[in-house]
Design a protein that fits this description.
eight-stranded parallel beta barrel, about 35% helix, eight-stranded parallel barrel, about 750 residues, alpha/beta, about 20% strand, 4 domains
């Protein structure tokens, strides 16, 4: 029986990093092109380099995955289709994606490309695995907040669905669940879902009561001491973060992990020495998420390189001269590591393979095309004979024009030889095209090229006059009476921690059948199972879900479901994906996109569009306790009691004097909120007969937005606005003060 080997998946932010990963022993590399990937701060690679990179990687038993892991607006779809038409004729081993519209396009038009679900898909429960398996994902990157037990359970579910799992084992930790962080987007217009995250969570803040100036900054992730557990969990791929890191960083980290894996395979005792990791950039390390030990120790009050400070911590220098000497030695070691990496990558080349093409032939005979590569030589002949009559005789310009497509493969035309015997001879251009196709077939390993796909343009649905309605979100039982005071549809927010609240929730929805359950974006482990039980027990007519796992079970059980705003719907193909694949009846359009970007969306028939016109703006949701570094807590480690019973709020202020609100409700994870709520009534007039429902969020989330109205009165104001009452439209900014609609103006 052959041993099980785990893939070591490395970052490739530029060509040197890709070479470094290959030289260090990576089994696979994920890298982005200069468009459509979630690390636009990385140098990335151009398409011209791709063939050479793939050739180099494959020659070294390494796979190449292309990251296309951002959300796409409709105006970008033609460029995306053009790129996919080129990618299908390369030898890449998979594409990493987030956008549901891209899932739709790949499945329908580009089925030869293997799909990997990005960490931006926020995959943390079994329903989400099944949802992604239904979209033909061949692997999923699990949320990095999960512990070993949760990873093992999800990997078992994934394998039963013919899906592989990958887990981040080294590099930066995010304080937020990936894919549902909007902090950078709201504060600077640089969306993390577009690869433009400006990392405001690592910024400096005014000193907190706990004396911290970087209260959201986590240590780096390292699972180096958890390899046995990850192996036993059945994980298929270990992923190293770092597409904006340097080549020496990549080489050092990958090399160490590669040796670590070889020791595992060879039954050699695993190393307990991770000191080399401190010789390249780090923020110190933690494996607390994997251990299920979510503690204060995960934070570090400094986002910069920890290497120098670590020397002082571990040595506690008595003399300043000893400290200076050790620091100098560390810099020398860093330089040595860089030299080693440079030496290794200098041996590798991503240049294309040179070929020589020689044309020859005589009148009345076939045209002969001889192709010579460094390793081979073959000849292709025309089916028609050369003639001395025709519109254009064969010359170098004509032949170069007809055969330049060979340069778009892993080869490039190094020499172009035309025999003098071809002077004044002619052959139809169609025949030259057929010869080119045969050459491409042979050079492509006897594989036919895939012709470009023309994706039909989507049409807007037939015109129907829409009288939009209002919906309202609440999270307190004391607000349930609003169901009887208004014609607005009332949604009730399900908590993240469902299990201890299950019986009360069943009673609540059973006794109040008008309430519509709203399922949150994060539901982990038994809380997800309990949420599925809740669905089965109350059998709701309709739900809203920010979680694709719950959406999957709603679809399977014939429950009418609406895609919530945290599913990040920003294009028409995402809507088609949800409608055609999962019988979704409606979707919230993301508040990240602008008025212009919304206009590109084409709504299909029998589908409803929703838009939130008033809500507190969630910046992130975190599995970590956000009070540790701010107001402090008598507990150093979070437990189930914290999640179920803790109710706190606090604020932090960045150096630009913008206030951020920390909110922890009973049964919910910690969240950050923007200082001002979102208020956008312009959209009501801007999109007549587009949106079926406008939504307001009246949960008790404290921000700097203020209103003197009670909730029934606020509902009444918005109902009047939707009904066309111009007076209410004019007065709303007086009723609700300190708001923003910046995202509607700027977009992504």
């Amino acid at each position: 029986m052959s041993r099980r080997e785990i893939e070591l998946l490395a970052p490739g932010g530029d060509i040197d990093c890709i070479k470094a990963a290959i030289a260090a022993g990576a089994n696979a590399i994920y890298c982005g092109l200069d468009k459509f990937n979630a690390r636009n701060r990385a140098a990335n690679i151009t398409f011209d380099h791709l063939h050479g990179i793939v050739r180099l990687a494959h020659n070294n038993n390494c796979q190449i995955f292309i990251t296309l892991n951002i959300i796409i607006v409709d105006s970008e779809i033609p460029a995306l289709i053009g790129l996919l038409n080129r990618l299908v004729n390369t030898d890449i081993d998979g594409v990493i994606i987030q956008d549901l519209g891209m899932f739709y396009l790949l499945n329908k038009y580009f089925p030869t490309l293997k799909i990997h679900a990005s960490t931006q898909c926020t995959t943390h429960n079994s329903g989400q695995i099944k949802f992604l398996a239904s979209l033909n994902s061949t692997r999923v990157n699990l949320s990095r907040e999960l512990n070993i037990r949760e990873i093992k359970e999800l990997t078992s579910v994934a394998h039963s669905s013919n899906v592989l799992t990958e887990v981040f084992v080294h590099g930066s930790n995010c304080i937020s669940f990936s894919g549902i962080c909007y902090m950078s987007s709201v504060q600077s217009g640089n969306s993390g879902n577009r690869g433009r995250c400006s990392q405001p969570c690592r910024d400096g803040y005014l000193t907190t009561p706990e004396g911290k100036t970087f209260p959201l900054n986590l240590k780096d992730n390292s699972a180096y001491f958890n390899l046995y557990e990850l192996n036993n969990a059945g994980v298929d791929s270990l992923k190293i973060e770092g597409r904006i890191k340097s080549f020496d960083y990549v080489y050092t980290i990958v090399n160490e992990w590669s040796k670590h894996l070889q020791n595992l395979y060879n039954a050699v005792e695993l190393s307990a020495d991770n000191s080399v990791f401190y010789k390249v950039f780090n923020r110190d390390f933690t494996n607390s998420f994997l251990k299920g030990d979510i503690s204060k120790d995960m934070f570090i009050d400094n986002p910069r390189d920890h290497s120098i400070k670590r020397l002082s911590i571990i040595n506690d220098y008595a003399k300043e001269g000893d400290k200076a000497k050790d620091q100098e030695n560390l810099f020398l070691e860093k330089d040595k590591l860089r030299e080693i990496a440079q030496f290794q990558i200098d041996k590798l080349s991503v240049e294309k393979v040179p070929i020589t093409i020689a044309f020859s032939g005589n009148q009345g005979e076939p045209l002969k095309v001889l192709v010579t590569t460094p390793d081979d030589e073959f000849e292709v002949c025309s089916e028609l004979n050369l003639e001395n009559i025709g519109k254009q005789t064969l010359d170098k310009d004509i032949l170069l024009t007809r055969f330049k497509a060979l340069n778009e493969t892993q080869y490039f035309i190094n020499d172009f030889i035309i025999d003098s015997s071809l002077k004044n001879l002619f052959i139809p251009f169609k025949e030259l095209t057929q010869i080119k196709s045969r050459l491409l077939f042979i050079l492509n390993g006897n594989r036919e090229a895939i012709a470009p796909i023309e994706v039909p343009s989507l049409k807007r649905n037939s015109y129907t006059e829409i009288k939009p309605t209002l919906s309202v979100l609440i999270s307190s039982v004391s607000d349930v009476h609003l169901c009887e005071l208004s014609s607005a549809e009332i949604y009730f927010q399900i908590p993240n921690i469902v299990t201890p609240n299950l019986s009360q929730l069943i009673t609540l929805f059973t006794e109040n059948p008008k309430l519509v359950p709203w399922f949150p974006s994060v539901l982990i482990g038994d809380n997800f199972d309990s949420a599925v039980q809740l669905l089965a027990k109350i059998k709701p007519v309709k739900i809203v879900s920010d979680n694709t796992g719950i959406a999957y079970y709603a679809f399977k059980n014939g429950i009418n479901w609406i895609a919530g705003p945290q599913l990040n719907i920003v294009n028409s193909y995402s809507i088609l994906c949800l409608k055609e694949q999962f019988n979704c009846s409606g979707a919230f359009i993301s508040n990240e996109i602008s008025k212009v970007q919304i206009k590109g969306i084409k709504k299909p028939d029998n589908f409803q569009l929703f838009y939130s016109i008033y809500h507190p703006i969630v910046l992130m949701t975190s599995r970590q306790c956000l009070f540790h570094q701010v107001t402090g807590c008598h507990k150093n480690v979070m437990d189930n009691h914290c999640l179920t019973n803790c109710k706190k709020s606090a604020t932090i202020t960045n150096l630009k004097e913008n206030t951020i609100f920390i909110d922890k409700q009973k049964g919910f994870y910690h969240s950050l909120y923007n200082q001002y709520n979102y208020l956008n009534t312009d959209v009501v007039l801007d999109f007549n007969n587009v949106f079926d429902n406008f939504f307001i969020d009246l949960r008790d989330i404290k921000t700097n937005t203020e209103t003197c109205f009670e909730k029934p009165d606020i509902i009444n104001v918005f109902e009047n606005i939707i009904d066309g009452d111009t007076q209410s439209l004019s007065n709303v900014s007086d009723v609700i003060v300190n708001t923003t609609q910046a995202q509607y103006k700027k977009g992504i």
